[in-house]
Amino acid sequence: MPRPSRLRALWGASHPGPSLVVTALAVALGVAAGLEPWRIALLGVAVIAGQLSVGISNDAIDAARDREVGRTDKPLARGDVSVRTAWIAAVALVVVAVALSAVLGPAMAAVHAVALASAWSYNAGLKNTAASIAPFLLSFGLFPSLATLSAAEPAFAAPWATAAGAALGAAVHLTNVLPDLDDDARTGIRGLPHRLGVRTSVVLAVIGILLGASAVLVGPALAGSVAGAATPIAPVSWVFFAVVVVLAAATLVRAVRRPPARVLFRLTMLAALVLAAQLVATSGS
C-alpha cells in the first residue's frame, strides 16, 4: 500500500477536525464583532495556521509515545512523515499565524502569540501535570478577543465573553482526553482529568458548558445594565441556551451509560459552535 503524500500526512497530524471547528468559531466571532470581510478572512487564515501548528507540534512531541501504544491513526506514528518535517511545518505555521495577525494589528498579534504559546506549553509538558487545564483556560479565555482586537478600533472582548471562553476551554480539555486515558496511563501521562477520573471530569465539563452558555445568555444584559442601557435577553438567545443545555445533558448521559468516547469532545465543540451562532444571531451582543 503506497504511503500518503507528506502534505496529506501533515494534514492528518494537525488534528484537522478541531482545527476547522476552532477556525469556524473565530470566523463566527469576527462576524458577530462586525468586522469587514477582509478582516474576517484574514482572521480565519491566521487562526487555522495557528491551530494546525498546535496540532502538528502535539503529534511531533507524542510520536514515540504514540508508536509505543500502537496509535495507527497517527501519521507520524505510522511513519508517513518524519518528525523533523513535522517540526519544520509546525514552526513555519506558527510564524505565519503571528505574521498574519500582525496585519490585523499589534495587539491582535501579541494576544494570538500568547494564546499559541499557551497551547504549545500544554503539548510540551503541562499535559502531564495537575495544571494541564491552565493552557485551555488561558487560550480559550483569550480567544474571543482575537476577533475584537482584529477590528479597526481594537479592544479586548467583554469580561463575560472571556469568562465564557475559559469555561468552554475547560470543558474541551476535560472531554478531549477521556478516550485516551488508558493509553496515557501506559505511557505515564497524568494530567488533571487523569487525576480526577472520568465521572468527575465529565461533571466538571458539563458545568463548564453550562457556565459558558449562561455567560453568553446574561452577559450582554448585565453589561448593558451597568452601562445604564437596559438590554433585555432576546427570545432567540433563550432558544440557543436551551440547545446548549440539551447538548450538556446529552454529554452527561452519554458518559454515564457508555465508556468514554470522542463523541463527548464533539458534543462540547458543538456547544461552542451553537454559542458562537447565538452571538451572530443577536448581532454580537
How would you explain this protein's 3D organization?
With 285 residues, the protein is mainly α. It folds into two domains: 1-139, Tetracycline Repressor, domain 2; 158-285, Four Helix Bundle (Hemerythrin (Met), subunit A), CATH 1.20.120. The chain is 76% helix and 0% strand. It contains 14 helices and no strands. The protein has helices at 6-13, 16-32, 37-61, 63-68, 75-78, 83-104, 106-124, 134-148, 159-176, 181-186, 192-196, 198-226, 235-257, 262-281. The protein is globular and about 60 Å long. The mean pLDDT is 90.
Topology:
Layout: H1 6-13, H2 16-32, H3 37-61, H4 63-68, H5 75-78, H6 83-104, H7 106-124, H8 134-148, H9 159-176, H10 181-186, H11 192-196, H12 198-226, H13 235-257, H14 262-281
Helix pairs in contact: 2-3, 2-8, 2-14, 3-6, 3-7, 6-7, 7-8, 8-9, 9-12, 9-14, 12-13, 12-14, 13-14
Q: Main beta sheet: strand number and arrangement?
A: none
Share of residues in strands: under 5%
CATH superfamily of the largest domain: UbiA prenyltransferase
**Which fold name is given in CATH as the topology of the largest domain?**
Tetracycline Repressor, domain 2
What is the end-to-end distance? 53 Å
In sequence order, what are the helices and strands, one letter per element? HHHHHHHHHHHHHH
Nutshell version of this structure?
The protein has 285 residues and is an all-alpha fold. It is built from 14 helices and no strands. α8 (134-148) packs across α9.
